[in-house]
Amino acid sequence: MGKEPDNPSHTEQRAGLGGNGDAPETADATLATPGVRMEETGRIGRRLVKVLYFVAAIFLFILAIQLMKEGAQSIAPRLQGTFPVDNMVSTLGLGWLGAYLVLSGSPVAAAALALFAAGAMNELQTFTMLTGSRLGAAFIVLLVGFMYAVRSRNRRQSVGMGVLALSMTAIVYIPGMLVGYAILKAGWLGGIDWHASAELSTVIDAIWGPLLRLAASLIPGPFLFPVGLAVILGSFKLLDQVLPSLDGERHAESRDHWLRRPWPMFFLGSLAALLTLSVSVALTALVPLASKGYIRREEALPYIAGANITTLADTLVAAMILGNPVGVQVVLAEAIGVALVTLVLLALFYRPLQRSVIALDDWIVATTPRLVVFVAGLFLLPVGLLFSGRLL
Questions:
Q1: Roughly what angle, to the nearest 10 degrees, separates helices 313-322 and 325-348?
Q2: Is residue 251 one of the residues assigned to a domain?
Q3: Which of 23, 160, 301, 342 is the most exposed place for a label (fewest CB within 10 A)?
Q4: In terms of residue numbers, what domain contains 284?
């Protein structure tokens, strides 16, 4: 007799496809493994890309500082005492408008330190240019607020957050600049001599020195300064791809209690600006929160105040790389002055400050003509300050 064909169930069992049902799960797991491996490989790849972005950003940051330092030394003899650094008021306007132009305050602050290190500006002018860069950096929040107002039509909250950021920055930075300058002139920071170590300076010269010399041979000296400014902008763009982003909505949903208390919000704002190295990024995260009703403007005041202090961290690093101890003291004095003013306002005058700023905010955003006048003033005021040396 011929051999009977195998029972299908027996065949399935021998093939591992029948029985107790465990085998199909194993098969499915086997089929799913390549997908899991691909996802894991994708995560590793994204991490490697972020590492490369970070290394490239730091490389460009240091290169930009060196280029601006070299360029500032070329233009300092011609620039000293002339437009646009005629006086401390002109440099305030210069830093303010410069931050508008590049939509960031940090590159302008680094440029101010490079000019100071080269002797083009004095300490007070450097203070005012740093302050101007901070005032201008808050403008991006207003710009984003306008964009959200178009989408959500919630102008009072979206645009109002931008007005609030600009107002709060001016309230703490103008007196903070004066307090910081008084601290510097009193000599309280005279013993501080923070700078890149000799070993680090040697490494910088070995790695970036050939590039700097090549650039100097190809580009006229005065043009190295704007080239360095463009390079530092590129470095911050790369850092934006690496550093933590602020998911406003998720944060508001998961940690709602933080959005109701002044001091936790103050420390949260300080941490946000420190991690992102940008007060513009840290403050812009408030716009969607306000637009969607997760946070009220009056609750954002401490957050803005905290972010305005730690945003000077990258400027301090730039001063240390430039190797000018007085430049480091200028940045520290500015940070200390702003911190002192901020802490006094939050500890002793928080409620009156909150009511006054929100009342001004509401008045500005209540009608379109008032808002137009406010925005026009944001451009006319720094322009007037810039040209003050020629008008007076």
A1: 160
A2: yes
A3: 23
A4: 15-391
